[in-house]
What we know:
Elements: H1 2-10, H2 17-30, H3 34-47, H4 51-67, H5 71-84, H6 89-105, H7 109-120, H8 126-141, H9 145-158, H10 163-180, H11 183-188
Amino acid sequence: LADVDAVLATNADAAFAEDALAMKGDILFRKKQLKEAQAVYEDLATRASSHDNKLNAHLGIMRIAVELEQYAKVEESADALLSLGSLSPEEENEATFNRAIARIKLKRGKEAVDDLTQLADNTRSIYGARAAYELADYYYRAENYKRAEKVLNAFIDAGTPHQYWLARGFILLADVCHKRGDNLEATQY
């Protein structure tokens, strides 16, 4: 980190400055110096000319914003990532999922439903499994128990290797049954 800082202090406008900023952001992120890393990634996002550096900057901004619960910034950086194109499927799923969760946290859950529904189609992926749970939870909190149950049953039937989210789905299904007044079924779940 000290070496990268020294290089940037003397060569801030050099051709390799973008890559040095990317390195600095990654180092700070790994050291959990999130505020400092966020500032570096934001600087990189404004300076970046290569696709890889733009991608790295927006991924860094989004991941840090998730950690810091800065949901407006999560949504903004996820949108920027998705507009870049040529993301890996995992990066695209991560950005789509984080955007959906940010919208829920910003009290705009209806805007998140399409993203969560799209992701929930693939429960083999961690983002798909979690999206299925989050979608059902959204419907549960909106007191739309029929939709929540439908999403949860589809999730259970589809199967998933992500047992944690499956278990949370069963617990939520028990809550749905309880709210419907079916306490026997709720107890069974």
